[in-house]
TrEMBL record:
Organism of origin: Stylosanthes scabra
Superkingdom of source: Eukaryota
Family matches, as InterPro entries: SET_dom, SET_dom_sf, TPR-like_helical_dom_sf, TPR_rpt
UniProt-recorded name of the protein: SET domain-containing protein
UniProt domain SET: residue ranges: 213-538
Pfam families: SET (PF00856)
Amino acid sequence: METLKGAIPEGLKRMIGDSTVDDLSATSSSLHSFFHHFEPFHQLLTELADPKHALCGKSKDAALESKQLGNQCFSKGDYANALDCYTQALRKAPFEASDMENNFVATLYINRATVLHKMSLLTECLRDCTRALQICPSYAKAWYRRGKANASLGNYKDAECDLNMAKIMESSSSGKRQIESEQKNILDQCNSTSTGLQHKENTLTTVGEVPQGKLQCVTIPEKGRGMISSHDISPGSLVHSEEPYAVIILKHCRDSHCHYCLNDLPADRVPCRSCSVPLYCSQQCQTKAGGQVLRIFPEVHSAIEKLPSDLGEYAVKVIQGHDSKHETENITEHKHECQGVNWSAVLPSEVVLAGRILARFLSERRTSEHITYFVEKLLIVLLHYSSWLTMAYMLLMQELSHFYEHMLPESKLDTHIYSIVLLYCLNRSFGAAFSIDEVSISQVVIIISQIKVNCMTVVRLKSKDAHGFSDQFGEFPSCAYLTSNVEQVRVGKAIYKAGSLFNHSCQPNIHAYFLSRNLCIRTTKVIPAEGHLELSYGPQVGFWDCKDRLNFLKEEYMFQCQCTGCSKVNLSDIVLNGFCCVNPNCSGAVLDSRVINCEKQKIKNFMSQLKIDKNDDIHTVLNQNNASCHIQPGHCLKCGSYRDLVSSSAAVDKALIFIKRLLDAILSKEISNTTIADALKSLHWLRSNLHAYNKLIAEVEDNLAQAFCLLGELQLSMDHCKASIKILEKLYHPDDIVIAYELVKLCSIQLSTSDGAAMDTISRIGSLIKCFCTKMSYKM
């Protein structure tokens, strides 16, 4: 793409960079005309959309190479790498439907099943054996391996049936004798157990929960459309649930998460049958994404029909089991990409998402003869109009202008280029339905720009050790300080038509989370009737200060946030990155110029109020009588004393050098007395320069709590943990889920020391979790 961008004449670049929505037809036509006569553009299209040049297609030679590497790893006992090699072979292997008896893919599934069995991943092994049998029901080795896996799981009845099937399908005498020997071993295992009960897999069942009440979409001044409640709603209530209109996995998660449901991939991941890009957690997800249902050929059924009735019924049940028994949806999101072409693997995620939106909309309205018709309707869907048949297209363009015209010139140019490339790629798949002219190009430009501000990032919560201490408990039995933190992993981008209606607030009263790819929204506070339901698009009070939140929202979503958290002064924004007063008896805050510029007017407005709540902590950092004269960089907001922020910043930087050494020592588990002493000295420097509620101090207190815990100094660890929590309770609401995470750490120490206060901490954690039973997410 850089070659294309570099070749565009500067005058055309400026024309596009300065364009408005009204200019799109002209800019699209000019750029399209340039590319039409530019040979490297057509060469790029060939590389992206011609199956003959595809790098994402299937290749038996490449699959055989991966299989041989897997065999070598297996013979060395390197099962982890063998597993990876066989998975890569499955990803590359072409599905040969014409040769079901000697199917290469079935062989690969059994090779991987053997590795999974060696790794004690028995359920995964069982599934791979079943997949091999769905391809080749007469595969004796697959029945044999399945029998061994069932036996290891304690499913002796199924194991016996599997081995009987293997013995019938096996043609060699030596093979039959091996199977009979295994049957005897299984019988002995069954007789040695106290019961002969059939093992049942654990299955996760969920009770269907219906969103409470009805929400109303209303027009909100300065915010556009938004959602309000029609009645009082209590905290923790599910208020919205929705499947995505379209979704795409992010590139960095392609090998770790299912390309359909976006859940973590199991060891027995399932590849796409037609290309080498997607991986799925099950055949069900693979079928839903690509629309390819595995069919057992009639001639294969004839072998099963000759079996005894009970064994025949068992074989049919296995081959047509729950993993492949489902209906194919009319609309499949990967099908148009699944032709061995490269474009869906190369283009940016939001561009591929735009392609999926267009493909779905076309599939839903196949009577349309021109892209203009359904793109106009689609744009209205993206803008949340409830009845797009009655909305005028010109009104739509007016509302869109805000987003496009605030894009950076380079973003406008990129969007133009990708729109043209995407239309050509879709044209190769759908033909004349995707005509390419200035009208269709300009509309795709708008769709991509709209996706950037309306799509939600699907996240997964992942518990991770902040400093790599996954095994510290074995080496430090006296210490049970939980150092693991919850990390949000961005795995996909999706368009939720109704979900996009919820407006942003830096102090949200709802949280969004995801069950598979399904969006769920719950309340976190009491919401009165006609109250606005607002979630966070990313930044929240307590996490970032106001200036950083405003900059992020302006750059990512092109609006100036005017929520309560940003329009009114709050303690967190003042002290989060603030310095302390040089007067040790003063609790006022000292701010640098960047924070002052953001907070000055809000502080003035706050101090002009006739009544100020004395219980509000904000009064501890401000001069309640006359703050205007002190609202200057480097001056205390309470007493006006001056602090040299240059020297204070230098002292903080020096302290952080020693804190970094402490973190390295924790990581290596080699914590010396010198390192601890230097870290404690650094904490003193920080407290001498930063405000008592500065978030950096809380983080350093937590680091020291970890270090002392690993050294077995549990009382000191508890003291520093409490100090960290005390600060965080000022930055966040005391009932925030962030506090619950920190209380879990404190509780782990209290339990280790038999501290009676542990029960009170557990009780508080329970209350917080009950209120915040949702998983938090970002709309990014």
